[in-house]
Amino acid sequence: MSSTPSSQIPCAIVGAGGYIGQHFARLLADHPSFAPPLLIGSERNHGRRFGELWQLGDAPPAGLGEVRLRTASPAQLSSAGVHVVFSALPSSTARAYESELARRGVHVFTNAADHRMDPDVPLLVPEVNPEHLALVARRRRGRGLLVADPNCTTAGLVVALKPIWNLLRPSAVHVSTYQALSGAGFPGVASLSIHDNIVPFIAHEEEKVVEESQRILGTLRGRRVRPDGAPFAVNCARVPVRDGHLEAVTLVARRRPDREAILRAFAGFDPLSHRSLATAPHPTIVLRPEADRPQPVLDRWAGRPDRAQGMAVSVGRVRWDPPFLRFFCLSHNAVRGGAGGSVLNAELALDEGWLDPLGGGAR
Amino acid sequence: MSSTPSSQIPCAIVGAGGYIGQHFARLLADHPSFAPPLLIGSERNHGRRFGELWQLGDAPPAGLGEVRLRTASPAQLSSAGVHVVFSALPSSTARAYESELARRGVHVFTNAADHRMDPDVPLLVPEVNPEHLALVARRRRGRGLLVADPNCTTAGLVVALKPIWNLLRPSAVHVSTYQALSGAGFPGVASLSIHDNIVPFIAHEEEKVVEESQRILGTLRGRRVRPDGAPFAVNCARVPVRDGHLEAVTLVARRRPDREAILRAFAGFDPLSHRSLATAPHPTIVLRPEADRPQPVLDRWAGRPDRAQGMAVSVGRVRWDPPFLRFFCLSHNAVRGGAGGSVLNAELALDEGWLDPLGGGAR
Amino acid sequence: MSSTPSSQIPCAIVGAGGYIGQHFARLLADHPSFAPPLLIGSERNHGRRFGELWQLGDAPPAGLGEVRLRTASPAQLSSAGVHVVFSALPSSTARAYESELARRGVHVFTNAADHRMDPDVPLLVPEVNPEHLALVARRRRGRGLLVADPNCTTAGLVVALKPIWNLLRPSAVHVSTYQALSGAGFPGVASLSIHDNIVPFIAHEEEKVVEESQRILGTLRGRRVRPDGAPFAVNCARVPVRDGHLEAVTLVARRRPDREAILRAFAGFDPLSHRSLATAPHPTIVLRPEADRPQPVLDRWAGRPDRAQGMAVSVGRVRWDPPFLRFFCLSHNAVRGGAGGSVLNAELALDEGWLDPLGGGAR
Amino acid sequence: MSSTPSSQIPCAIVGAGGYIGQHFARLLADHPSFAPPLLIGSERNHGRRFGELWQLGDAPPAGLGEVRLRTASPAQLSSAGVHVVFSALPSSTARAYESELARRGVHVFTNAADHRMDPDVPLLVPEVNPEHLALVARRRRGRGLLVADPNCTTAGLVVALKPIWNLLRPSAVHVSTYQALSGAGFPGVASLSIHDNIVPFIAHEEEKVVEESQRILGTLRGRRVRPDGAPFAVNCARVPVRDGHLEAVTLVARRRPDREAILRAFAGFDPLSHRSLATAPHPTIVLRPEADRPQPVLDRWAGRPDRAQGMAVSVGRVRWDPPFLRFFCLSHNAVRGGAGGSVLNAELALDEGWLDPLGGGAR
Predict the structure, then answer these.
(1) How far is it, in rounded angstroms, from Cα C115 to Cα C146?
(2) Phi, psi of C318 (to 5 degrees)
(3) Residues of chain B neighbouring A316 (CB-CB closer than 8 A)
(4) B25, B204, D1, D104 - which has most CB atoms within 10 Å?
(5) Does C286 share its domain with C345?
């Protein structure tokens, strides 16, 4: 592991042993702004080499394979000088652990669901609702930030919806999903349950997609987010694909722009072009012209080259039969919809000056 | 092959070597009303043992494995005394071949797409629009019947829609599909294209589902079918599952029955209960109460026991949030949506007296 | 459930909730010699409907879907008049439970590994070593029989080896396996571990295949089995296939028969032809002449029609380059290599007069 | 496409549109010694954008996605100043085309099978038989080199065998394969043939593995290769895995080293350590200590970081029960066993001075 330049921010990954935790490690191992992360795991994984747990193909990031995971309390992380924590904790333990970290002044960027709907926690996608980051100012001084990224299905969806939202003013959004195995983490779904099969149910998923999408697309009014009012009808299913959530989307549009305007809106969407965020893809959306794209196996790593691979959202099969706009969108559930989403959130917070190295979340 | 009771109707399968053709053979090998079928194949398969081509698991039907496929013209089939032909011909060749059979007085029950939208050809699903069979009376005397079953995706969908159609009076129908590999026949999709992948495109499929569904749900006015006017927004995708098309359906309802009425409509749907059709499942729909059904691997053969296996349509995950009714339906694409659909059509025609053994389709 | 003819033997399935337990239920639901089975499950499944747990496709056997699993001790089963128990218990609990059943005079036919190598327990495959059944006479009078079937990989292998064993007198046997997901039961392997993957390790499997094969192919000398001395070199791997274990076998032969003699030995193997055992396939081996068989998806149910489906072993790609005989064999791991193996063992024991209805295993 | 430094060697890929051709493009797009390649395809692909054909996940190499494939004769390539051709031609056309290139003084490094057994064509794996490269001196002056890499299964096998070959002096080698879908190229195997299935047959594969392995492990005597005499017994099967050929290997050893010596031989194997070849992994073999490795999904890209990813051979599950040494090896069939093998051959030839830029293969 290279020595840490003094300008890099000390950080840790909690829940490092899981699938999302490993993606965090991959993204943070040589990040320009964050120091190589401490790897904090569950008691079950305490003392195990990170390389043993590695599930992402071939080798773990240079320098991290031989590291042994250890457990750590929020107090221990705070005492150790950790400034930012990336959380891939399971829902059962995230709420209290993350709150305690923030209380102690550590900034938390979390992929866990527990705090997503808290009124003072931004549910943030930098290309969609960067202004929601201001919600953190509701929290008392001295506390760390607590910023959540959305559910893996919501993350790709809201990116695909944003550029056409005002252009079409939808009266309803219909979504059916084709969700990858890794969305359930490890061990996740039993092979006999999903081999040669589709499972048309993922617990709480449809509800999350609806409420999270409405919140992210909502408007910041003072210190509250007012959710967008368009109804979402969502059907979620698990498919035998390793990575990459595909979604069939039909909007019922109130407006009637021409088709070219819609395509331009997708293809030209790059709201972070003026910032320099390491993990942001440019453009945000890859618009596929082919008849049969996007596909998980071909498009899940869109955003290449370099750090942003897996961060772009692919959109294709755009069919405009007013009032119905139909398209498919695809994103890497563990990157754009997981670890990458939170890393990008942290980069935005840093860029906005919220990660002041001297104090816990205050500016 | 057992000797043919004199009351059994001589029949043939054309396109017998393919996936649907093999399902026809499975269903007709010991059918109570139809004699064991002649197996007619393409030139490529001429002279090959049926057992060599068999793809459906283990052994072909008793008596058929050693039969050698041969080619035959419509004239030859007619001369040979074939009274009914079940067609699994590819679209490129079905139109002319089937028309010629009918012209020669042979009754044709076809799974091919070519004639489905002909005004005088019933696009028939016995549980949904049996009255459309009367369209055949438009055809000139002396001709054979020509009756089509719908596309494999449409077949399951219209069965699931029928019992709730008038109850909800939908203003729109949203469908996303999870279509099995065998829907593309053999060889179909390349393994590298679909392994660990979803392909969100099937040529002409979305258009077929829309126009066929509207026709089947339409009303017979005099000697014309007036399509149902509800708009369908359809997204089709291929998934790595061998058999069984799953569909996520959302109706936008104009009416507001209570949830129990909807469930009763699904579960009680058995419009063929008063007839004795060998291939009809009773009830037509299997309503699944579980949170995570229907699933292809568990439900594709619904309709058991006996001849009707794979003919029932499974419906589950019924969610009623007015105006949206959401559910998943599943049917065996090669049985209910293929060979079984046409066999059931022939059984209905026989029951209605259209397969008069003395003359070509006239009564 | 049909009423039990007085001649049918009262039986129970223990471990009924699992994958092998469900196959037992399928095979015993309408068995000519055994009454419909009691369904005994784990505490976790106590009170659950059998239909809820059903994983084998569509509907559970008529009459059993609505039955609720319950727990039962050996004493309770014995008191309830159960005469024969089919065991699909996990290894952790099988040993004591099965011993206690036998002590109480109940006959046990088990798929569990615990007793397989006990000197007085026949490790039995009726087509291969029926004479080993006599080992049960070592057990004290008044006790029930305890008869084991082998590991799912061994079961198919020894059937394929038997007809050529003396013909070739192998000096070594090399086996590599392609083992299906269901061999690990439910839930078994995590989907992320095996999707798009092969796992070249199954705990204890290689050792079991070696010692069990040598025992089954061994010779009964007095009241001991002397294992066959040929060394086995075995490599086991899990593959993403639902059912059906495929094995690549190379024998190093000491003898040099001609190729036709080898093929005749495989194809003509039917050592149970003179008995009337309901679950026995005839012939035992299906010799495939095609270049590319056997295959799991096409051949796992070999043995059709009727009760013996999944009980035949398919052999193909026989290549004879002395001293190497190479072939592939395939069998249904949960039928021939699981529940079906034990049912056939019970049928043999009944046929041999060991299941005297009046007393516990003595004759 | 970046401008070509004058020291880079002008090259072309023939058969660029296929799966191996795309891997060639990936490896050569920014190679230190070879200029960005011309992309030559079949007539069917003439004029198509390379990006349209791309099957390897996300984006084609920078600069190549927009290039349109074109056809070219050997004469045209020679006239265009192409110095080295990497061939991914199908067997039907490779022989004549490659011979003509060499006749015109163009050096050919081929993945095609046609010339592999020609006495004057080195069948080359740089870590195994670099001395065989001297065979090219048999060819007449003025001609281009013609160097073949082995079949995708052989390539990984001989690398795994080399370090232990003299240590164990095997009297026989037993191999069973688990071969990936991409080994059959595109379109390759039909999805219905391999989904939920294993196909225990690959045309001509077993014969190739035997004769190619014996040749590569053979000894150069004067200007001939004398094949190694150890008999190979090989069973080949296709499995539903995208990339990565796994092989179960059992050696029958004449010698009895201790286990540690065997492990050291594998782990320490790095015969190219003294050279600087861009595509060579160091060490050549990754010895896995885990109980359940190597696995395709985790190990196929071994050799990372950088250019050599997919070039290392993973070895694991080493079990030494004299006389049997059993292990599994895994390599990326399209990289080590395909395009990467030929690129490494070209790097060796360059390092050895055979690619003299002034003249056709003579030195």
Answers:
(1) 8
(2) -75, 115
(3) 200
(4) B25
(5) no
Inter-residue contact C325 to C169 (CB < 8 Å): no
Distance CA C24, CA C14 (A): 10
Among A237, A295, A298, select the one facing B248 at the smallest CB separation.
A237
- How many distinct structural domains can be found in chain B? 2
Task: Note the pLDDT tens digit of each residue in C281-331.
Answer: 999 999 999 999 999 999 999 997 778 999 999 999 999 999 999 999 999
B24 has a pLDDT exceeding 80: yes
Selection from D330, D314, D342 nearest residue D31 by Cα: D342
* Nearest-by-CA chain D residue for A312: D58
Answer yes or no: do D196 and B242 touch at CB < 8 A: yes
**How would you write B161-229 as a 3-class SS string?**
HHHHHHHHCEEEEEEEEEECHHHHCCCCCEHHHHCCCCECCCCCHHHHHHHHHHHHCCEEECCEEECCC
| Cβ contacts of C3 within 8 Å, gap of 6 or more | none
Q: Are A192 and A203 within one domain?
A: yes
Give the per-residue pLDDT at A361: 39
Domain span at B265:
152-332
- Give CA–CA dist A107/D312, Å, rounded: 41
β partners of residue A107: A84
The pLDDT score that the predictor gives to residue D206 is 98
Please report all neighbours of C, defined by 3+ CB atom pairs within 8 A.
A, B, D
How far away is chain B from the Cα of A231, in angstroms, using its nearest Cα? 10
The CA radius of gyration of chain B, in Å to the nearest whole number, is: 20
Average pLDDT for runs of 10 along chain A of length 363? 67 97 96 97 96 88 92 98 97 94 97 96 98 86 92 98 98 98 92 97 97 98 94 98 98 98 98 96 96 97 87 98 98 98 98 72 37
ipTM of this complex prediction, to 2 decimal places: 0.95
State residue D363's pLDDT score: 36
* 8 Å CB contact of A299 and D58: yes
Of A189, A192, A242, the CB nearest to C196: A242
* Residues B247, B139 share a domain: no
Tell me which residue has tokens 């449409």.
B154
Same domain, B31 and B119: yes
Flag whether the pTM goes above 0.90: yes
Low-confidence ranges of chain D (pLDDT < 70): 1-6, 140, 356-363
- Least CB–CB distance from A198: residue in B233, B239, B324: B239
- Together in a domain, B44 and B71: yes
Domain co-membership, A141 together with A161 = no
Q: In what order do the strands lie in the sheet with C146-148?
A: C38-40, C11-14, C84-87, C107-110, C146-148
Q: Are A87 and A110 in contact (CB under 8 A)?
A: yes
What 3-state DSSP class applies to D147?
A: strand
Catalytic choice (D107, D245, D329, D332): D245
Residue of A55, A192, A196 lying closest to C192 (CB–CB): A55
Contact residues of B toward A, CB < 8 A: 172, 174, 176, 178, 195-201, 231, 233, 235, 237, 239-242, 246, 248, 250, 252, 291-298, 316-317, 321, 324, 326, 328
Answer yes or no: A152 catalytic: yes
Is B55 in Cβ contact with C299 (below 8 Å)? no
Q: Are residues B56 and B20 in the same domain?
A: yes
The reply to whether C115 belongs to the active site is: no
Q: E strands, A52-116, where?
A: 84-87, 107-110
Residue B311 Cα, gap to closest chain C Cα (Å): 12
Interface partners of chain D (CB pairs < 8 Å, 3 or more) are: A, B, C
If asked whether residues B145 and B34 sit together in one domain, one would say yes
Separation of CA B269 from chain center: 18
